[in-house]
Amino acid sequence: MITFIAFILTIIGCINWLLIGMLQYDFIAGFFGFQASIFSRIFYILFGIAALYLLLRVIVNKGTFKVFERKKKKDKKAEAPAPQPAYATANPPREDFPSQQSEEENQTTLFDEHMKN
After folding, report:
1. pTM, whole model, 2 decimals?
2. Is 62 left (phi over 0), alpha (psi -120 to 50) or beta?
3. Is 75 inside a domain boundary?
4. 116 by DSSP, 3-state: which?
5. What pLDDT shows up at residue 52?
6. Does residue 91 fall inside a structural domain?
7. Mind listing the pLDDT tens digit for each residue in 63-109?
8. 98 inside domain
9. Any residues with CB less than 8 A from the CB of 51 and at least 6 apart, and which?
């Protein structure tokens, strides 16, 4: 919100400088009566502070500038658990199937079958 207010003040100040440069008319001084009015001076100070604030925001954000920056709201609800891989919910192997044999047992079985023939 502060960035938005600073942005609006800076735009008004820039328009005022445009009017001074092109038409030699000071909008703020015309609004408050004259340039040395306390209210005119307060607005000039506010324009300068707003411009410095925006400059610092650009420097802090490494060259990026966002007038509206929405903060991410944390969801009060419990977050959904992370999805499980498909193999995590697979059924365990059934007992009626023979378990995998070691490589040595496989070679012995193949050798025995070859010898029978």
Report:
1. 0.54
2. left
3. no
4. helix
5. 95
6. no
7. 887 777 677 776 656 566 677 766 666 666 666 655 555 555 656 66
8. no
9. 6, 10, 13
